[in-house]
Design goal:
The chain contains 9 helices and 10 strands. It is an alpha/beta fold and 289 residues long. It has a 10-stranded mixed β-sheet, sandwiched between helices. It is globular, with a radius of gyration of 20 Å.
Length: 289
């Protein structure tokens, strides 16, 4: 994850066509917990190639719609948290590109999810969740449903696989759990090879050892966070999706920078954006400086 020095706001992307109240509420709550200002952003995309200025697709109309969406979103936030510092921005550009650019100054970016089909995610200008999760230089939160607040034993889930990116995700998840007064459950899903020439029991024990060592010491900064961990066998998307049931959020790491279309986001993260039963936080690999 990028150095957070100077990153002093939570940004939430607003879709004028379908405002996500769960995403707004999640972002506002996070801003209050982190004592950061909240910025609402609407991006006005460029006209399609060859579109005439007087055609039904009219830039002025989109700008008016954007302003209206920002006003409505700001009113929603104020109704939830009157005290949160709030700013709005109507910016020119493709939504995913605008949000990735703003991510350079953000502690995190929050977006809703419309669960687009794979072709829509890859080729639609309206695709946001996948390309922003793949490219942003800060954690990206994709929210589809309201957070399960008020749970008796709230907990977060984090996927760990021994990689540097999953260690960064774990570090972020511990901090997030502390903010939410929640426990943290670290899960390593081992996808057993079709053909195995080694000792499966030994391989499983080795993963348990690595997971235990990875988790050890992470709670020293946040001693009130209870951290548990386990190694599961199966498909990572399926097992993490099951683990997400009842969780406040599921946190996963992202290896490096994704491609423009999000194709390099990774099958596990991409699958969770469709199947998780709670918000998904994608954390980019640690990059200091």
């Amino acid at each position: 994850m990028q150095n957070t020095a100077g990153r002093d706001e939570v940004i939430v992307g607003i879709d004028p066509r379908e405002q996500s109240v769960p995403a707004l509420a999640w972002a506002a709550d996070e801003a209050v917990r982190r004592r950061l200002p909240l910025r609402l952003v609407v991006a006005v995309p460029p006209p399609p190639g060859g579109q005439h200025v007087d055609a039904p697709w009219n830039r002025t109309v989109l700008q008016v719609q954007g302003e209206s969406a920002l006003t409505e979103a700001a009113a929603t936030v104020r109704a939830l948290y009157a005290e949160v510092p709030l700013a709005t921005g109507l910016l020119d550009g493709t939504p995913s590109v605008v949000l990735c650019r703003k991510a350079a100054q953000a502690r995190m970016v929050v977006v809703g999810s419309r669960r687009l089909s794979r072709p829509e995610e890859l080729f639609s200008a309206g695709s946001v969740a996948v390309p922003v999760s793949a490219q942003a230089d800060c954690p990206v939160v994709v929210v589809r449903e309201p957070e399960r607040a008020g749970q008796r034993h709230p907990h977060l889930v984090v996927g760990v696989d021994g990689s540097e990116s999953s260690r960064t995700a774990l570090e972020f998840a511990v901090e997030e759990a502390a903010l939410h007064n929640a426990a943290l459950h670290a899960v390593w899903v081992w996808r057993r090879p079709v053909v195995s020439f080694g000792d499966e029991a030994a391989e499983l024990d080795e993963r348990r050892r690595i997971l235990s060592e990875t988790v050890a010491g992470r709670g020293e900064k946040y001693p009130d966070v209870k951290i548990t961990h386990e190694v599961l066998r199966g498909h990572p998307v399926e097992e993490l999706a099951l683990a997400s049931i009842g969780a406040l959020v599921v946190v996963v790491g992202r290896h490096g920078r994704g491609g423009y279309s999000g194709m390099r986001l990774g099958s596990v993260v991409h699958g969770l954006l469709h199947r998780a039963e709670c918000p998904v936080i994608t954390v980019p690999e640690s990059q200091h400086g």
